[in-house]
Amino acid sequence: MSDLEVQAELASRPGHAAPTRRFGAAETVAGILALFLVVSAVAPQFLAPGDPLAIDPLSAFQPPNGAHAFGTDESGRDLYTRVVHGTQYSLVIGVAATAIGLGLGVVLGTLAGMLGRVVDFTVNRFLEVLFAFPGLLLALLFIVIFGPGVATATIAVGLSTAPGYARIIRAQLITVRSAAFVEAATALGRSRWQILWRHILPNTLAPLFVLATLGIGQAIVWAATLSYLGLGAEPPTAEWGAMLSAGRTYITSAWWMSFFPGLFIVLTAVTATVLGRSIDRRMRHI
Amino acid sequence: MNNGNSGGAAAALTVSNLRVGFGGAEPVIRGVSFTIAPGECLAIVGESGSGKSVTARSLLGLAGANARITADRLELDGQSVLDLTDRAWRARRGKDIGLVMQDALVSLDPLRPIGREIADSLRLHTSLGAAARARRVLELLDAVGLPDPRLQVHKLSGQLSGGERQRALIAAAIALDPPVLIADEPTTALDVTVQAQILMLLEEITRAGTAVLMISHDLAVVSRLAHRVAVMHDGLLVETGSAGQVLHAPRAEQTRRMVAAIPADRPRGTRLSPADAHRRSGTPDGTPLFRTPGTVESTVESAVESAVALEAIGLTQTFRRPDGSRQLAVDNVSFTLHRGTTLGIVGESGSGKTTTARLLLALLPPEHGEVQVFGQPWSAASEKSRRTLRASVGAIYQDALGSFDPRWNVAEILADALGVRHSRRTSHHPARLATLLDEVGLAATTLHRRPLELSGGQRQRVGIARALAGRPKILVCDEPVSSLDVSVQAQVLDLLDDVQREHGLSLVFISHDLGVVQHVSDQIAVMRAGRIVEIGPAASVFAAPQHAYSAQLLAAVPRLPARPPPGRKTPFGEKDPIG
Q1: pLDDT means over runs of 10, chain B (579 residues)
Q2: % of chain A with per-residue pLDDT over 70
Q3: What is the DSSP string of chain A?
Q4: Which residue of B has its CA nearest to A16?
């Protein structure tokens, strides 16, 4: 196609006409779920006005019914209220842990990618040591040292995801660093810092944003796992992992006690993953 | 060479009213007809997107699963090949019709020795035993002029040079003596001297009785080989005729434009593209973006500054090989670029041209030697002190797309180069952006586009606009038109000529294409293996090359014959054993 034809063709398209793609069914469902989860996290009273900790021994172990949509637990607490209020914990832990992992990853990866061979070597060996442990084991190790709790569980999950992010950032940095447009910026007279700030970092981190969305789902599952093992949130707290753990004792008689927290862990993780992939696809198509 | 199953004087390939479409869209090929006789070479010439490759692939049944192919006749060696099944095609490919593709590196399996690759078709289509196959492979490699076939059969494609790979690919294509051979841009990725050898090989194959269909974008290359030339444009053959007639008395508008766009043998300053449709006179708001040369200020400046814009003194650069030894990439290169002139640097791949460009741009500190800009230290200065001077040295790259930050649109790229703050959200663009776009003949609508959405020519125009943004006095252009179609190349060369004249720029123009270099340069430096083997005024280098290599390079340049030749005898370059 000649320049003229392309120009004519482009001129005929209005504004920033990037081909708009419709949302698929999975994306629509994930979007609605995400909306529900965010509302549950920000304003749980809006969806479940009750108190998640209020006990009512008379109505203990009720299966799902009109009054209690998800049933009640051993102390008669409404499971629906608890699950909705528990969203807060899971989402905050998931996002915070991913942020910690990503932050550490950016620092380590940037050090390795930008500061020459000695630093690169040192950081790489350190990352390899971390990689030698399964992520969850690393998190357990951290909790053993610093004691259980929501804060330590969050940091522990963040720590265990950091090496993966650091590796990706380092590889991406090395690719971007030697890209032709970085050389072109040097030829335009840009300083090292300007180039790092305006070209290298944005092009390194943009693909990571997608990865982080995917990572949130994983972090939520890990955080729930730690709570289930009794290393995160303490039992009376309305946290999904802790609720799951409490329900385990009664799993043969009161399946709903573990089913609904478990369902929400899975749904949240799937939602984060579907949205992450959807963003990824869209970013690639721009 | 022909195995003789073509009946008498019948055409080896008959195509009548071929139409090819993809999916539900309008046909891409809209009724193409031609025939090729045994021992004849027909060349289909066209620009990218004209449909020439789709045509070639349709003849092999390789146009793709969603291609709708219709034709009144599509006959290979007298037999209809329309609506063949995949299985029937497989039986014919290689045996009845051979294909030579452009990029031998990706066309050959990188993990198999070329001998095995060539033996494949023998194994599939003949009953030859292993020993007989091995003999035949050696014969074939010998026939395509690969030196030392016994040694080469065991090599992987990655261990061969570009020319050797192309020869191996041709050997595989002619292994079964197909009556028809399709060569799709067979020499496009090759250096000129190697290109000349491959063309000579194809000529021999034609002479031996094979019908050759050659696909190319380059009229000059085609003129060496083809008996007849068909010019393709937008899915139609706009003109078909003998090579001499098409090249010297083109009838179709598209052919005339293509012939006019060939830069070789056209003196400096002649326009290559038709009246430039893109350029509008005057700036939108009347503010001049650049100081016009000749104002009081600049005359004072030029009196103070030296007449030398850029000087390279004994530049030397080596690279570490994988085995640890060091290889000279640039070897004691010295030259002087005078104000307002163009120095063309020409050489084949690996001659050190791009390394020289990077040294000139001070993107790489030279191991020895020095670059000076307007008599001031440039390569020897610190990056910090050089930074203020960088605005006066602009750069234009071959891969324009790769030289832009993929996240930015044109407005952001140019605003950045101008040093203007600019946000993607605003629809209001600084006036200087519009002026700059106008300067390179791009419409204002381009501002919102990302480089990825632009055509090759438009990308290079944005690249030139970016280089001009800093009001440079020197432009270093590294293969600026090498990835462009001839007509787009003509527009970009004309544009460079315009901006040079308007702003009194000094240019270093690096290219592998002697024709282009000849058209744009005042001075020419010929590089080989990192050295400048000859440097001098363009006219004298082309008229009377002093160095043997320059002479060889010049002889190998494909150019249109001066007048319709009596036969098709054209002098080929000396056969180079490196091949």
Answers
A1: 47 91 84 92 88 88 84 88 86 88 77 88 87 91 85 84 85 90 86 85 91 89 88 91 87 87 77 59 40 38 62 90 81 92 89 90 91 89 86 90 89 87 64 85 85 86 90 92 84 89 91 88 91 91 89 81 49 40
A2: 91
A3: --HHHHHHHHHHS-TT-PPP-PPPHHHHHHHHHHHHHHHHHH-HHHH--S-TT---GGGTTPPS-SS-TT-B-TT--BHHHHHHHHHHHHHHHHHHHHHHHHHHHHHHHHHHHHSHHHHHHHHHHHHHHHHHS-HHHHHHHHHHHH-SSHHHHHHHHHHHHHHHHHHHHHHHHHHHHTSHHHHHHHHTT--HHHHIIIIIHHHHHHHHHHHHHHHHHHHHHHHHHHHHTTSSS-TTS--HHHHHHHHHTTTTT-THHHHHHHHHHHHHHHHHHHHHHHHHHHHHH-
A4: B448
| Percentage of chain B exceeding pLDDT 70 | 88
B203 to chain A, closest Cα gap in Å:
31
Structural contact between residues B370 and B339, judged by C-beta atoms closer than 8 angstroms: no
Range of lowest pLDDT (A51-60, A165-174, B138-147): A51-60
Q: In this complex, which of B363, B386, B445 lies closest to A11 when CB atoms are compared? A: B445
B393-396/B474-478 β-pairing: parallel
Is the CB of residue B466 less than 8 Å away from at least one CB of chain A? yes
Q: Assess B448–A contact: CB distance below 8 Å, yes or no.
A: yes
Chain A residues near residue B419 by CB distance under 8 angstroms: none
* Domains of chain A, first to last: 68-285 (1.10.3720.10)
Flag whether residue B277 sits within 8 Å of chain A, measured between CB atoms.
yes
Mean pLDDT of A257-275: 88
- Would you say domain B306-392+473-484+500-556+567-579 falls under CATH 3.40.190.10? no
**pLDDT at residue A246 is higher than 90:** no
Give the separation between CA B185 and CA B214, rounded to whole angstroms. Answer: 7
Q: Where are the domains of chain B?
A: 13-260, 306-392+473-484+500-556+567-579, 399-470
Q: Which CATH number is associated with domain B13-260?
A: 3.40.50.300
pTM given for the model: 0.74
d(CA A205, CA B389): 32
Which residue on chain B is closest to A19 by alpha carbon? B453
Q: Do the Cβ atoms of A188 and B455 come within 8 Å?
A: no
Location of structure tokens 């006749």 = B73
Chain A residues whose beta carbon lies within 8 Å of the beta carbon of residue B391: 188-189
CA distance linking residue A284 with residue A28, whole number of Å = 20
